[in-house]
Amino acid sequence: MTTPSFNPPVRTLMGPGPSDVHPRILEALSRPTIGHLDPVFVEMMEQTKGLLQYAFQTENQLTMPVSAPGSAGMETCFVNLVEPGDKVIVCQNGVFGGRMKENVERCGGTPIMVEDEWGKAVDLAKVEAALEQNSDAAILAFVHAETSTGARSDTKELVELAHRHDCLTIVDSVTSLGGCELKVDEWGIDSIYSGTQKCLSCTPGIAPVSFNKRALEKVRNRSSKVQSWFLDLNLVMGYWGSGQKRAYHHTAPVNALYGLHEALCILQDEGLENAWMRHNKMHNALKAGLEAMGLTFIVDEAHRLPQLNAVSIPEGVDDAIVRSRLLSEYNLEIGAGLGALAGKVWRIGLMGHSARAENILLCVGALEAVLSDMNAPINTGAALGRVQQAL
Question: What angle (nearest 5°) sits at the alpha carbon of residue 183, between those of residues 125 and 126?
Fold first, then answer.
């Protein structure tokens, strides 16, 4: 008996990631595989770097995709910039600040935690106090767009604070790249990482990163070896550096990089600011429908991400049953809460190709139907009309 080929169902992905993959990207993934040192592929690599510079709004020469998921982008920043004994101020207002802490510890650094309530933005006053109390700190690390809560922190102000205290910055933009305002050079961000499976509408498995000259100076002047051979920028740049001459480092995921290249072409075609506006418009339409049902968001509007919406689950409603029914009856995926928010919120993603009017109408209509059938305490009959008005 032979094992049959795997044919996944067609789903609408409106969770915290991955998002729906654009058909142009799926087609790009199917193109013929060529060698990772082929001159034609090297030419595409250069184009990809330039397209990533546009997405990040940077002229950093070291802007490239790491051949692994967003978590490896995070590790690339930490293992290259954190040395044993370094003191790193880490902001945590959700799950992913906790992962930053883990990275600092595994690099032999000392994390100084600045903690805020989940669903809130990073408190600038707390960060300033931590910087003043730890004048020997080397780095400030924080999440721009916290995927576990849907909260956006003031990256520009946080970077300015760090630089006033002579700290480098490591910024998580996994959920923000391509979905909301992000300006690496204008805001002075020293190092940043992201992922392909969120607002870029690409498949998971690649992690865009960017380092400025200030960050690279620390990498080049380390007193100890980078603990990861695979993620050591001093070695990786032999392959991803400028020019046609490339040194073998690893076999790049050729077809996955075709997909990223196409995703970035789509972003360029739409225009970065247009993409930001689309995500915001779709968020407002979703918000209109959910609020018409009587559902509420856990993040204050001033700090709310348009692309990741954390919505309170109505009293007496079983989180898992609702998500299971949406998946089985409507082929619709939304996300569960993580950590302290498990069972308390749904995370509804509007990222990249998922941020479309038809998806919002499906999501709001399906959610209303399931909740109404379960006799949940919601208002019925007005939600879809409010969505259409907002659109």
Answer: 10
Positive or negative: CA dihedral 314, 318, 321, 323: positive
What pLDDT digit, counting tens, does each position of 114-167 carry?
999 999 999 999 999 999 999 999 999 999 999 999 999 999 999 999 999 999
Q: Could you tell me what percent of the chain has a pLDDT over 70?
A: 99
Tokens describing residue 388: 């259409």
**DSSP per residue, 229-261:** STT-HHHHHHHHSSSS-----S---HHHHHHHH
- Residue the block writes with tokens 């002075």: 188
Q: Does domain 272-390 have CATH number 3.90.1150.10?
A: yes
ω into residue 9 within 30 of 0, thus cis?
A: no
Q: Provide the CATH topology of domain 23-268.
A: Aspartate Aminotransferase; domain 2 (3.40.640)
Does the structure show a pLDDT above 80 at 244? no
Q: Are 20 and 201 in contact (CB under 8 A)?
A: yes
The answer to whether 250 and 67 have CB atoms below 8 angstroms apart is yes
Report whether 187 contacts 61 (CB < 8 A).
no
What residue type is assigned to position 266 of the chain?
I
Q: Does the annotation list 11 as a binding residue?
A: no
Structural tokens at position 151: 């909260």
